[in-house]
Amino acid sequence: MTLTIPDKPIWQQVAQVIQAMAARAGVTIRTLALDVATLLSSQTAGDHQADLSGCRDPRPWVAVQTLWPAQ
Length: 71
Fold this sequence. Notes:
- By secondary structure, the protein is of the alpha/beta class.
- 37% of the residues lie in helices and 34% in strands.
- It has helices at residues 9-24, 36-45; strands at residues 2-6, 30-34, 50-56, 60-66.
- Strands 2-1-3-4 form a four-stranded mixed sheet.
């Protein structure tokens, strides 16, 4: 699967941890780093398999959103 992430170093580090954890379970995750505007557009359009997003309000948090096409 492909995990879409913001093109910032901290998100790349978070994605690497997720990739390593998934690999232990036999799941291969590729990452696609996008600038924030493109990432938000992709999220709104639902044009992704999974993405990372987060905010600092007031504590850091990470949410992994997974959207699978309806079958």
